[in-house]
Automatic annotation (TrEMBL):
PANTHER family: PTHR45033, ZINC-TYPE ALCOHOL DEHYDROGENASE-LIKE PROTEIN C1773.06C. Residues 16-343 form the Enoyl reductase (ER) domain. GO terms for molecular function: oxidoreductase activity. The lineage of its organism: Eukaryota, Fungi, Dikarya, Ascomycota, Pezizomycotina. It comes from Diplogelasinospora grovesii. It comes from the Eukaryota. This is Enoyl reductase (ER) domain-containing protein.
Length: 346
């Protein structure tokens, strides 16, 4: 039986920066409804999105105050009487948009984000509708599994959601954050080539160990898009770009992309006001597509691939405790991490 109270982090506002994160030690644990599942959360992970919610920079629906965090994994400890898909003891991971089950995202599903509109995962016990959970990969521990909810699924959606990646194609990933590293791992598992960028020589070495075929330092080589193109067969360009830095990188991504290639617009780490013309996709004969995480059906495909290829998400060496979550936010904001920032929940 779970206790009646628990520890959790609540995002209380958009105007107090990280001071808006409040740690509660006696928050109530909800009861399980007919179609609901109670999870003892053992792992969580942070996303850039979690950091920009209390900073007031997040452009998608919010309903504050809310328990923070979208990414969580743990063990089922109770199920409602009408639950059919999960039993006590199952290992599960959260779905980012709880209402996005399959197909394209719609407005209703976009308003079901954990840690934004609905209470999230920075707590000890979570009660979720059964459709809001996915069976966790058998080869991963709880913190590793928790990283799949947002960054993992977004990368998978970029590579498979519109124009599925094929063996032999080339994928360009930017930087060494969660989305980019998943992109690298998924692309290598698919038999694709990977060109990765980073600002750091030390991180470049890790990227090579993870299988990157080429690494370009984007600080030393401001024309890295052209450089990437020149590294592709026939210098025709890359098939996919996982674009995470927005205004800071799109010009170079356009230089790298192949005719009929796909640039997935995922993030805006480098700013939100690009200087390029909206007509560029015509000049470059490419597709520029906005991606918003992904549906449960795609998450299940991703998990099957993770198990089949024994892919282990790259979790930064510094793993935080639930009580230290604010420090984890600060660590990630300072860009001290490589891959995902993990949180262990006792
Ligand atoms: N659309 C969606 O559904 C969705 C889902 C997940 C994430 N996102 C967004 O995607 C972005 C990346 O998320 P994340 O969790 O992977 O972030 P992250 O872990 O914070 O990524 C940080 C890394 O990105 C690289 N980077 C930062 N600024 C850069 C720049 N101007 N140019 C090139 N690289 C840069 C750096 O790599 P180096 O240190 O190696 O240089 C940095 O360490 C965020 O904007 C996030 O909000 C969107």
């Amino acid at each position: 039986m779970p206790p009646s109270t628990q520890k959790q982090w609540v995002v209380t506002g958009k105007d107090k920066d990280f001071d808006g994160l409040v740690f509660q030690t006696d928050a109530p644990v909800s009861q399980v409804g007919e179609y609901e599942v109670m999870v003892k959360l053992h792992g969580a992970s942070l996303n850039y999105r979690d950091l920009i919610i209390p900073k007031g920079l997040y452009p998608f629906p919010l309903d504050l105050p809310v328990v923070g965090g979208s990414d969580g994994a743990g063990e089922v400890i109770a199920v409602g009487p009408k639950v059919t898909k999960f039993s006590v003891g199952d290992k599960v991971v959260t779905l980012f948009n709880q209402g996005h089950q399959f197909g394209p995202v719609d407005v209703a599903a976009s308003k079901t984000g954990l840690g934004g509109v609905l209470d999230g995962t920075l707590r000890q016990y979570g009660v979720f509708p059964e459709q809001g959970l996915v069976r966790a990969p058998q080869n991963l521990n709880h913190v590793e599994a928790a990283t799949l909810t947002c960054a993992g699924l977004t990368s998978w959606n970029a590579l498979y959601g519109l124009k599925p990646l094929k063996p032999g194609e080339t994928v360009l990933v930017q930087g060494t954050g969660g989305v980019a590293i998943f992109g690298l791992q998924f692309a290598k598992a698919a038999g694709a080539r990977v060109i990765a960028t980073t600002s750091s020589a030390a991180k470049a070495e890790i990227l090579k160990k993870l299988g990157a075929d080429h690494v370009i330092n984007y600080r030393e080589d401001p024309n890295w898009g052209e450089t990437a193109r020149n590294l592709t067969p026939g210098k025709e360009g890359v098939d996919h770009v996982l674009e995470v830095a927005g205004a800071g990188t799109i010009t170079q991504s356009l230089r790298a992309i192949k005719y009929e290639g796909v640039i997935s617009i995922i993030g805006f780490l480098g700013g939100v006001e690009p200087k390029d013309s909206i007509l560029e996709p015509l000049m470059r004969i490419c597709t520029i597509r906005g991606v918003y995480v992904g549906p449960k059906s795609m998450m299940q495909d991703m998990i099957a691939a993770i198990e089949a290829n024994d892919i282990h998400p790259v979790v930064d060496q510094r793993v935080f405790k639930l009580e230290e979550a604010r420090q984890a936010y600060e660590y990630m904001w300072a860009k001290k991490h490589f891959g995902k920032v993990g949180i262990k929940i006792e």
